[in-house]
């Protein structure tokens, strides 16, 4: 029995009360009964997980592990072993992995668990192209209609991406980058656009096949600097610079 936390503010420990078993919703065929013999433990410290919204916290933690390269493309991970890492039962892990399967990040391996999808450079290039096709015309329209003071209000988010880049952590930077781009597009007032763009953004952050990619701190800082430059161009109403920056930004870290 996996051990978790008691109450909504505790931290999962080995001596706490067991987390309540939950009924899996929309269980995918073959996702249960994984065998764990010989499976290597997942590296990294055990994150603290609160009892409330366990599935959502596990989903966020798994997304971070994907971007950080802790979940390796091509490798199979079982819900019980991942549950050991997070200090919870296999059920919320399995549910979170099912969501990642729906998003295309992992695929179900019957009686074993979930394999992290291997993606090539072509898929990354296609994602960059689709993002550009979606966001460039929207940003150019917004550049013509949104007043300068509204763009200036987003400066703290751009500065936060610089701080995240300075940490050298790809997962930390990826999240701040996603928040910044979401705030830009939110000015269009189209919730569907924001959701679709956010999904594409997440997909672009998943690691490609092959050896783990270690983004250098300098590359992250260069990418973050483009956010400030974009705001400068938007405030100035320089459509040519806006077009160039948005078009080229998606390929910066691929």
Strand order of the largest sheet: 1-3-2
Query: Biggest β-sheet, characterized?
Result: 3 strands, antiparallel
How many DSSP-defined strands?
Answer: 3
**Average pLDDT score:** 82
Structural class: mainly alpha
Gyration radius from CA atoms, angstroms: 20 Å
Low-pLDDT stretches: 1-31
Q: Tell me, briefly, the overall form.
A: elongated
Count of helical segments? 10
Share of residues in helices: 55-70%
Order of helices and strands: HEHHEEHHHHHHH
Can you describe what's shown?
- The chain is mostly helical and 254 residues long.
- It is built from 10 helices and 3 strands, in the order αβααββααααααα.
- It has helices spanning 54-68, 79-86, 90-103, 121-145, 148-152, 155-166, 170-186, 191-205, 217-236, 239-249, and strands at 76-77, 106-109, 113-116.
- Strands 1-3-2 form a 3-stranded antiparallel beta sheet.
- A hairpin with a 3-residue loop joins β2 and β3.
- α1 packs across α7, α2 (79-86) packs across α3 and α4 (121-145) runs antiparallel to α8.
- It is elongated.
- Mean pLDDT is 82; it is low at 1-31.
Protein topology:
Blueprint: H1 54-68, E1 76-77, H2 79-86, H3 90-103, E2 106-109, E3 113-116, H4 121-145, H5 148-152, H6 155-166, H7 170-186, H8 191-205, H9 217-236, H10 239-249
